[in-house]
Amino acid sequence: MTEETKYSLPKVWQWDKDNGGKWASTNRPIAGATHDHELPVGEHPLQLYSLGTPNGVKVTAMLEELLALGHSGAEYDAWLIDIGKGDQFGSDFTRLNPNSKIPVLLDRSMDPELPVFESCAILHYLARKFGEFLPADEATYSECISWLFWQESGASFVGGGFGHFYAYAPYPMEYPINRYTMETKRQLDVLDRLLANREYVCGDQYTIADIANWCWYGQVALGDVYDAVEFLDASIYKHVNRWAQQIKERPAIQRGRLVNRVFGPEEQQLRERHAASDIDAVL
């Protein structure tokens, strides 16, 4: 890089709305709605407004796991929020989540109706509501919450950092790719060392910590997100790969991955989900 091409910090940063690559239109330095838009509502108690990204899959996988256990109250309508078109900035969506990020869950069985946003917060809410996928003893419960929060905080590096600069930036940039690749690999190593001596994140019990971490680290390691297995040398994380493949084979995970999916083979895309039969038709 020559002196002429080096970035010079301005005295006051100004937003260039056309700068940012593929997802430039989804980011802006202010909050609030940009347009009026009424969200649809289905017949089930739980209404999900989402997209089949890793954060979105956390919730659909959790709901499908609950349904597999026989919790009929976990039936849900899943509505597509197209972030490329700015659906997340609609008035109804922004009312449910002032942060304008997917996913958002609206529990209509509560009085008044209760919106829950942030994917890991939704996982925790559903786990408590239905009494599943949370350890009963205090020590393991605390560990589960620690790993849940670890994933929530770390995903910004893997998704917003590595994913953006590796897959979506307008052109390759050495410094940010090196920075975020290093941190992504460090996090994979943290998880690999943990899983060397236990079946799941919190021991021998499958929990919301597994669901949350699998949707990011598991899918990245398997190449289902960013297609970066070779670049990350992900095969060296043998324990992560064992755990990731084991969870991927769960029927509920396979079902949840299809919901609100708008990429990949067309036959594996399901823009909306209102009944189990919607997923059955795609499998």
Explain this structure to me?
- By secondary structure, the protein is of the alpha+beta class.
- The protein folds into two domains: 46-133 and 260-278, 3-Layer(aba) Sandwich (Glutaredoxin), CATH 3.40.30; 138-249, Glutathione S-transferase Yfyf (Class Pi), Chain A, domain 2.
- It is built from ten helices and four strands.
- A four-stranded mixed sheet has the order 2-1-3-4, covered by helices on one side.
- Helix 1 (54-68) links the parallel strand 1 and strand 2.
- Helix 1 crosses helix 6 (208-222), helix 4 runs antiparallel to helix 5 (174-195) and helix 6 (208-222) crosses helix 8 (238-248).
- It is globular.
List the topology elements.
Blueprint lengths: L45 E5 L3 H15 L7 E5 L10 H6 L7 E4 L6 E4 L1 H12 L7 H31 L5 H22 L12 H15 L6 H4 L5 H11 L2 H6 L19 H5 L3
Helix pairs in contact: 1-3, 1-6, 4-5, 4-6, 5-8, 6-8
Count of the domains = 2
Largest sheet: 4 strands, mixed
What is the 3D form?
A: globular
Helix content: 40-55%
CATH class of the largest domain: Mainly Alpha
N/C terminus separation: 50 Å
CATH third-tier fold name of the largest domain: Glutathione S-transferase Yfyf (Class Pi), Chain A, domain 2
Structural class given helices, strands, pairing? Answer: alpha+beta
Number of helices: 10
Order of helices and strands: EHEHEEHHHHHHHH
Task: Please give the radius of gyration in angstroms.
Answer: 19 Å
User: Strands of the largest sheet, in order across it?
Assistant: 2-1-3-4
Low-confidence stretches: none
What percent strand? Answer: 5-15%
